[in-house]
Amino acid sequence: MAEALLGIVIENLRSFVEQDLATYWGVDQQMQKLSSHMTAIRGVLKDAEKRQITSEAMRDWVQKLTDAAYVLEDILDECSIQSKKVLCGVQNSCLTRFHPKDILFRSDIGKRMKDIDQRFHDIHEERSMFQLAASVTEKQGEDDDKWRQTSSVIIEPEVYGRDQDREQIVKFLLEHASDSEQLSVYPIVGMAGLGKTTLVKQVFNDDEVSKQFDLTVWVYVSNDFNVERILQSIIESTTKQNPDRKTLEAKHKEVQEVLQSKRYLLVLDDVWNEDKEKWKELKGTFQCARGIKGATVLVTTRLEKVASIMETHPAHHLKGLSEDDSWSLFKHHAFGPNREESAELLAIGKEIVEKCVGSPLAIKTLGSLLHDKTEVRQWQNVKESEFWKIREESSITSEENSIMRALKLSYFNLELSLRRCFSFCAIFPKGFEIVKEELIHLWMANGFIKSEESLEVEHVGNEVWKKLYRRSFFQEAKTANM
Ligand SMILES: Nc1ncnc2c1ncn2[C@@H]1O[C@H](COP(=O)(O)OP(=O)(O)O)[C@@H](O)[C@H]1O
Ligand SMILES: [Mg+2]
Description:
This protein is an alpha/beta fold. Helix content is 61%, strand content 6%. A five-stranded parallel β-sheet has the order 2-3-4-1-5, with helices on both faces.
């Protein structure tokens, strides 16, 4: 992130000097100094970004650098805008370059440049405390072609090792729940990335299940258990109309009408709510609407407590994938169907999979990471990476710690420019379906991607998206039936 930002700012500085704007605003000497400090800092940033994972002092230093880079970017932006105004003025009304406003601006910019110059000087000095290793810029391109040959293989996600769980839930829906006069609530509990949503999607799309219910509705709930929003989602997905303007009461009523006399299956995916009252309010509406036996709510959650608040049926605890299923999933992503598997890679792969504690998310992510790495040394690097040694976070379980390590390892293996594009996606709310073209436009607007030689910037954006997708940083949104 910091590296990519620094690259952009250095580039802006260079173009500023080339256009003689630095001389015009009387800051060329400071710019030269800044540029040399920043180039030196950039040389060691790759090492710094890696080490900040384990060192708080390093993290502070990178943060200081990032803050300073943003301030400098702002100054350059202001100079650029002011320069355009002056140039316009010269053409249109023959203003002299020493208009009083320009003189004030020069003095202000001169002061701010001096301050920022000092900040970078200090950051540059502090660098020596950490004994950071200089690195060469990463090479790109070679990996892409290998990916192109097999990428189509994993476009459709394949589900491994959930047959028993699926059968158990389907059986519950078809047999037990269908006889019940009461609303049945079946919670599925497990840590992040274990495959709860994937499993419930399979159940939701099962032919027998579809036949059993008059109405099936999928609602992504997430952290904010907002009753009104949930009601709204149900109305929208069943009537295809937006009930935005209606009162909460009207929405309760409409949901009751929609569900009335129907054997319905409702999925509430990723619930975090521990507030009993909120659930009671919603459940009341679902129950009022019940006009036929067998109405069921399937809930996915990471929290045991949520399950115990909502359940009418004991929680279904999802486990990690078995050793064999973990291995099949890993092979699918790491090798694809056509690649020869050398005994050495297989042996290292097995050890890597073991570290993933049966988490499909971790296995898939590391498998995708290794897909374009063909040398034993590269696999060994992943297996022996320092990321596996990151200190445990006490707030999460040891399994969750293992998964976080796998995900961090994969993130820090991304080219630096890709990390920035990916981190930017944090602006979207959880569970948000991102439209690829819009994301590319946002990357462009924020200056994260630029045209390259003969490639249009949209094309560059598309390549960035593809690389992130292949590394499993994006998940294809399944919209059918939901
Ligand atoms: N049984 C499985 N086989 C293959 N891939 C899986 C399996 N379960 C989950 N995945 C993949 O792992 C990732 C996380 O799964 P997800 O269902 O979103 O987890 P959760 O809902 O528990 O957080 C997804 O990319 C999904 O495609
Ligand atoms: Mg989920």
